[in-house]
Write a structure and sequence with these properties.
The complex is a heterodimer.
Chain A: H1 10-24, H2 32-53, E1 60-70, E2 73-81, H3 83-106, H4 113-132, H5 136-154, H6 161-192, H7 203-212, H8 219-235, H9 244-247, H10 253-262, H11 267-274, H12 276-281, H13 285-305, H14 310-330, H15 334-361, E3 371-372, H16 379-393, H17 399-417, H18 421-449, E4 454-455, H19 489-518, E5 543-544, E6 547-548, H20 549-574, H21 576-585, H22 587-594, H23 599-644, H24 652-674
Antiparallel strand pairs in A: 1-2, 3-4, 5-6
Helix pairs in contact in A: 1-2, 1-4, 2-3, 2-4, 3-4, 3-10, 3-15, 3-19, 4-5, 5-6, 5-10, 6-8, 8-11, 10-15, 13-14, 13-18, 14-15, 14-17, 14-18, 15-16, 15-17, 15-19, 16-18, 16-19, 17-18, 17-19, 17-20, 18-20, 20-21
Chain B: H1 2-5, H2 8-23, H3 28-52, E1 65-70, E2 75-79, H4 83-102, H5 111-130, H6 134-143, H7 145-155, H8 160-192, H9 201-208, H10 213-230, H11 239-246, H12 249-274, H13 276-302, H14 307-326, H15 331-362, H16 373-376, H17 378-392, H18 398-412, H19 419-444, E3 455-456, E4 462-464, H20 474-492, H21 495-531, H22 543-552, H23 558-572, H24 579-594
Antiparallel strand pairs in B: 1-2, 3-4
Helix pairs in contact in B: 2-3, 2-5, 3-4, 3-5, 4-5, 4-12, 4-15, 4-20, 5-6, 5-7, 5-12, 6-8, 7-8, 8-9, 8-10, 8-11, 10-12, 10-13, 11-12, 11-14, 12-14, 12-15, 12-21, 13-14, 13-19, 13-21, 14-15, 14-18, 14-19, 15-17, 15-18, 15-20, 15-21, 17-19, 17-20, 18-19, 18-20, 21-22, 22-23, 23-24
Classes of the chains: A mainly alpha, B mainly alpha.
Chain lengths: 675, 596
């Protein structure tokens, strides 16, 4: 069934068109959800069929139609499927279907119901285009396309100014990264003479060839990875371009789960993995990626410690986990990075959706301080989130445990084998971050679900736009009177699937992922140096405490996860007063972290405000100076005319006088010259 | 047979204008219906021609039909087209019925006159693109001023008189100088061909390439004097925001969609092929101006409160990309530039229509007075967001294709532009997102706030009560849908368009490419000279250079021209050899130039 390959992404596109029609016909509104679910599910099924029709570890090229063809610049709607694409296809369409089903219940009764599913379908189209793209320009189309959908969906509650601002911020910050990405594409075109990635003569093959023939360091190959990286940092919310992701939580929760946790934000990791040979061309590129990832991981984790908004905690956690993935690809363990991407998609989607359930039940309440002990009201949600939290914290034998360990072990190995202190430091940073992660995750869970039952309902129900004009009574409006309630199984069903993923994806998925990644373009060029993670249980050079690195790392990180959970248990369940005491004692640090290191304020003062002042200056120059000069020039002819006007009064004696004076002067001059 | 139809693209609107003159005092409905009918006839003719056009080759711009004018002066109305011309004509004839429909409720005074001027404007604009005779071109080019002047001056808003005056002065003053340039080229041609005068564009282009560098430079300057304000290029752009803001919606749409393209079209059709040497030399300077325009006006957009002014300034910014792509001289850049003309016309034209529809409802353009309009007018909001995204250059919509190709072109333009130009201009993509999303966030999204539509007289008495705000009518939706479909189509499947543009672009840029290759060859020779340091100066192999120069420059007094050309070419070639070597080579070239 490989003939379906070019059309995988077009099922959701068709769904988007149909949902778009539904937007304008209120009677059709409720059909949007099934259309969207079917569209994404069709993509899932067709991906399965295509993969089934392919050889094991095979690759597939397919072209839907020609797009931009100018001279030797060719960028078509052509797709490339290799094992790495398969993993991404499964994640995007699988998680996408589950989230869409959940959202069908979650968004019910909202006035923008059809608009929401239009956005989601369009997003899945763009995301599939991104992962399937065979050339960088098409990848860029998907890249900007997911950014657009993110913009539309963050700004879904468009009459909330904060949502509009967040949407704008997301798009613009991403555009900054995208400029780097676009420049990277241009350099690729000039260096490799093509923008096609795969196949003979493709960028990846050429880069492999360059790697095999030694290290030909040219300016272009040195720069390309850094430019592409900039795009990845924007899309995957890494330092210094991470600022948009926490604000993106203004969007509906299913969007946060699908776009801002499971799929879109991992596009940067995917892109680096896909272009790995190109990144390997520059000796400094991957270490930089790893460093930025490590710095982001710990930086975002510290912020997550002191936030009170449930969704923002998870947002910073996402930033932090993406940091891990970057450490992974940076340490040449693309398998680890992609594995973490895979497991993270399950448990983070689960966490966001359960957080959405809490928010749904508490009428939009997201403040950690205003809820407690909800386990009796929402037992299913409580335990589903517990599974997600364990997986995120890296509790032994759950999904996050395996993938995080794989990354950290690879970093440590890179450090020990290559005598590279930086990677050792990164591994340690990763472990500290793991401790923080376990702590803030369970801080949230203990606060929300454990302890005495106490809660304060939010101001508005989610989905209610806070406007008097909403035309459809909310489906749950009546139930809210009785306080929080458990979600219907339409919404909990997908969560159970995700929870199973969070439990088992690590154990069952590891081999599959490692095997697939090592047979894709993301397989590192083996020639330089040892790197453990990619050949699974093969021999390793270094030992730690007399143990195999992986085993040692698993032990350490397991203990660290338990320790973090214990600390959270003590401060946020056993002795909440102690937590408050510590908070007052460290009030300086807490304020700094609550205000997210004041990064937004710094950006505003350093970049936005000066730029705005500059803009106003330019406007003044344009209006006053440039226009003024033109006006002055334009005023010269009339002025000349005015100056001559007094002499043209039409009075004969005046002309006579002038004439006489002229003759007199002439005569005088002649006489003088003759004499 | 089809050829015979070509002049009718110009004649039909003129006939239409005349017929409106007759019926102008009859019912308004009749006037409007007739105006629409005439514009539809024009569109139909264009459609017939387009259907019969051979899109795969892209046409050749041969004169197909001639209408005699003043034959003893070599003047004639020559009509012809290639795919570049035809695309722009199609854009013009498509916009015409759309803005006629869109103006039905917007224009309430002097309706017949309004449509007469619109039709005359259409005739002139189409004439510009179809003219194969440079004086015919120039007449049409200049004639566009008159309808536009009246459209702004009569149906504009409060500062319309100043705007009309400024528009006229700016563009008229420059184009006078262009006329001088044109006459010089014709005179040069006549000198070359034994006093036989012609104004045919093809013949003039062939001759003009033989001008010396200095002549080319000044002719180029003369062309730019007329074309640059039309584009408009920084710093001669200040007429545009005012004219756009004050013009009625139909005027703004025509300005943005077509009139600005007269400038870039002129540069592409005349300035580049006629003055290749000068084009190469000034390319970096013009591009720097274009880039300043991109960034500087983009920032200005960001602090506007007048929505029409914002979109007007955004035109200046966008057209900067168009100019940059053109001065990259390569297939990608110029293709980007030509598609930019079409795509910018579609998306910005549509944006102006959207703004016009909003203005008609609220009678204000002040963004502070409104917010969240999508709640009151969801369909309008949807279209506005869509066209904004097309304008931002979102991949999948039309704007991206051209912007991307312009940037690729500038990036890869060897010896002319290069990566720094493209990357700095690329910052404009970020700024475009900033100001356009700022506009959308302010007007379309946000909490609902409607401007008061109550009209009061000076004493505060209510003349007209607040109107009920209704979403777009089917008529209005009908005007926007063709534009939206085209934006999407050209974004996803631009291939046929790009393919048909390739050959004409190749023809137009060949002179520049030839000159560039020649300079490269010369530079390679210099390098070779520099490496053969043992050779005495007399034996430096300069014959290749001279051969190349001879091929390029076959003027009657070739010794003098070669002399100038070689000297100039060397001067502008990047100094690859050491300073002394360059000087030696220049000296050699002088010797070589004079000796034969």
């Amino acid at each position: 069934m490989t003939t379906l390959a070019p059309w995988i992404s077009w099922f959701p596109a068709l769904a988007a068109v149909l949902c778009g029609v539904c937007c304008f016909k209120p009677t059709l509104r409720n059909y949007a959800a099934p259309i969207c679910v079917i569209g994404i599910f069709a993509a899932f099924i067709s991906s399965l069929l295509v993969i089934n029709g392919m050889d094991t570890h095979g690759t597939l090229h397919a072209t839907a139609f020609e797009w931009i063809v100018v001279g030797d610049f060719v960028a078509n709607f052509s797709y490339f499927i290799d094992p790495l694409t398969m993993i991404m296809l499964m994640v995007v369409t699988g998680i996408g279907t589950l989230v869409a089903i959940y959202a069908a219940g979650y968004m019910r009764g909202d006035r923008g119901y059809a608009r929401f599913f239009f956005g989601v379908s369009l997003f899945v189209f763009a995301m599939l285009t991104l992962v399937l793209a065979d050339n960088l320009v098409l990848l860029y189309l998907g890249w900007e396309g997911v950014g657009l959908c993110s913009y539309l969906l963050i700004g879904y509650y468009y009459d909330k100014p904060s949502a509009v601002a967040a949407a704008k911020k997301a798009f613009i910050v991403n555009r900054i990264g995208d400029l780097g990405f676009a420049a990277g594409i241009f350099f690729c075109y000039t260096t490799f003479g093509t923008v096609t990635m795969s196949g003979d003569g493709g960028i990846i093959e050429q880069a492999r060839g360059m790697l095999e023939s030694g290290y030909p360091v040219s300016t272009a190959t040195l720069w390309i990875p850094f430019l592409l990286m900039l795009g990845a940092f924007g899309k995957s919310a890494q330092l210094p371009l991470y600022v948009w992701l926490p604000d993106a939580m203004e969007g509906p929760t299913p969007v946060s789960a699908l776009i801002h946790a499971a799929t879109m934000v991992t596009a940067g990791v995917y892109m680096i993995a896909r272009m790995l040979p190109v990144f390997e061309l520059s000796p400094y590129a991957l270490p930089t990626v790893a460093c930025v990832g490590g710095a982001t991981a710990i930086f975002a984790a510290t912020i997550a410690l002191c936030q009170y908004d449930i969704k923002r905690i998870y947002a910073y956690s996402t930033v932090s986990q993406l940091g891990y993935m970057f450490i992974g690809v940076g340490a040449l363990s693309t398998a680890g990075g992609v594995f973490h991407l895979f497991t993270h998609a399950f448990f983070k989607a689960l966490l966001f959706l359960t957080a959405g359930s809490v928010m749904h039940a508490l009428a939009g309440q997201l403040d950690l301080r205003k809820m407690s002990g909800l386990r009796h009201k929402m037992p299913v949600t409580c335990w589903l989130m517990f599974v997600g939290c364990l997986a995120l914290a890296g509790f032994p034998f759950l999904a996050g445990f395996y993938s995080k360990d794989m990354i950290l072990a690879a970093a440590l190995q890179q450090g020990l084998d290559g005598h590279n202190t930086m990677f050792v430091v990164l591994a340690i940073v990763g472990l500290v971050t793991a401790l923080l992660t376990a702590y803030y995750t369970f801080r949230l869970w203990f606060r929300v679900f454990m302890g005495p039952e106490q809660f304060e309902m939010g101001e508005d129900h989610h989905g209610d736009d806070g406007d008097t004009g909403h035309d459809d009574a909310h489906g749950h409006a009546g139930e809210n009177v009785g306080g929080p309630h458990e979600m219907p199984w339409l919404m909990n069903g997908p969560l159970v699937v995700l929870a199973l993923g969070a439990l088992l994806a690590g154990v069952l998925g590891q081999h599959w992922i490692v095997d697939n990644v090592s047979h894709s373009t993301a397989a590192p060029h083996v020639a330089h140096g040892a790197h453990g993670a990619d050949h699974g249980d093969g021999h390793h050079g270094s030992l730690l405490f007399g143990m195999d690195l992986h085993l040692a790392m698993q032990l350490i990180s397991g203990c660290i996860a338990l320790l973090g959970i214990l600390i959270a248990w003590y401060f946020h369940l056993q002795n909440r007063a102690a937590a408050d005491r510590w908070a007052t004692r460290l009030s300086g640090v807490v304020t700094l972290l609550e205000n997210k290191w004041y990064v937004d304020e710094i950006y505003d003062a350093v970049i936005v405000s000066p730029l705005r002042a500059l803009a106003r200056g330019f406007w003044w120059i344009d209006d006053k100076i440039i226009n003024g000069v033109v006006m002055v020039i334009a005023a010269i002819p009339p002025l000349l005319g005015r100056a001559a006007q007094p002499w043209q009064r039409g009075q004969l004696q005046g002309y006579g006088l002038t004439m006489a004076a002229g003759i007199a002067i002439l005569a005088f001059l002649i006489i003088v010259s003759v004499l | 047979m089809i050829e015979k139809l070509v002049p009718f693209q110009v004649i039909v609107p003129v006939l239409g204008a005349m017929s409106l003159l007759i019926v102008q005092h009859v019912a308004h409905k009749l006037v409007r219906a007739m105006a629409l009918l005439w514009s539809l006839i024009g569109l139909a003719i264009t459609a017939i021609i387009a259907i019969n056009f051979d899109w795969s080759t892209g046409g050749s711009f041969e004169t197909l039909v001639t209408i005699p004018w003043a034959e003893n002066l070599g003047l004639e109305f020559g009509f012809g087209y290639d795919s570049i011309s035809l695309c722009l004509v199609m854009l013009t004839s498509l916009m015409m019925p759309l803005i006629t429909i869109a103006s039905w409720s917007a224009v309430v005074k002097r309706i017949a006159e309004f449509h007469i001027w619109l039709l005359m404007l259409e005739a002139a604009m189409i004439g510009v693109f179809l003219a194969t005779d440079i004086i015919f071109f120039y007449v049409c080019f200049e004639f566009t001023l008159i309808p536009m002047f009246f459209l702004i001056g009569i149906w504009g808003s409060s500062r319309r008189l100043q705007a009309a005056k400024m528009f006229f002065l700016y563009t008229f003053a420059g184009s006078m100088i262009t006329l001088v340039g044109i006459i010089y080229v014709a005179w040069f041609h006549a000198n070359l061909h034994g006093g036989e005068w012609t104004f045919g564009i093809k013949a003039l282009t062939a001759s003009a390439q033989q001008m010396s560098y200095h002549e080319q430079f000044w002719v180029m300057m003369a062309f730019l004097a007329g074309f640059a304000p039309k584009v408009p290029l920084f710093p001669v752009h200040t007429w545009l925001p005012l004219a756009h803001t004050e013009a009625p919606m139909a005027g703004s749409v025509d300005l943005a969609a077509v009139l600005l393209k007269l400038g870039t079209y002129g540069i592409l059709r005349f300035a580049l092929p006629m003055c290749p040497l000068a084009a190469i030399v000034i390319a970096p300077y013009i591009t720097v101006l274009a880039i300043i325009g991109i960034l500087y006006t983009a920032l200005i957009c960001w602090v506007q409160s007048d929505i029409k002014k914002l979109v007007a300034y955004s035109s200046v910014s966008h057209m900067g990309f168009c100019v940059m792509g053109m001065f990259a001289f390569n297939a990608t850049g110029v293709a980007g530039s030509v598609t930019y003309m079409i795509n910018h016309g579609l998306s910005t034209g549509a944006l102006f229509i959207c703004i016009g529809m909003m203005y008609e409802r609220f009678h204000t353009r002040d963004m502070n007075q409104m917010s969240g309009l999508i709640r009151a007018m969801p369909i309008w909001g949807g279209f506005t967001v869509f066209f904004t995204l097309a304008s931002v250059g979102l991949p999948g919509l039309n704007g991206f294709i051209s912007e991307f190709l312009c940037l690729v072109g500038a990036f890869t333009a060897r010896d002319v532009l290069g990566p720094p130009y493209a990357i700095v201009a690329g910052i404009g993509m970020i700024f475009a997102a900033m100001y356009l999303l700022y506009m959308v966030g302010r007007v379309v999204f946000g909490p609902l706030k409607l401007p008061s539509t109550e009209q009061t007289d000076k004493g505060g008495h209510v003349i007209a009560p607040a109107a009920k705000i209704a979403d777009l009518t089917p008529r209005e939706i009908g005007t926007l849908i063709p534009l939206a479909v085209l934006c999407l189509y050209l974004g996803l499947y631009p291939k046929p368009l790009l393919q048909s543009l390739a050959a004409p672009i190749e023809t137009l840029t060949r002179p520049v490419q030839t000159a560039l290759e020649q300079q490269r060859a010369e530079r390679a020779n210099l390098e070779k000279d520099a490496s053969n340091t043992n050779n005495p100066i007399e034996t430096i192999d300069a014959t290749d250079t001279i051969d190349a120069a001879m091929k390029f420059n076959v003027t009657p007094d070739n010794t003098m021209t070669i002399h100038t050309l070689s000297a100039d070419a060397t001067r502008f070639a990047t100094p690859v050899a050491s300073d002394t070597m360059t000087i030696q080579s220049v000296a050699t070239h002088h010797i070589a130039g004079v000796s034969p």
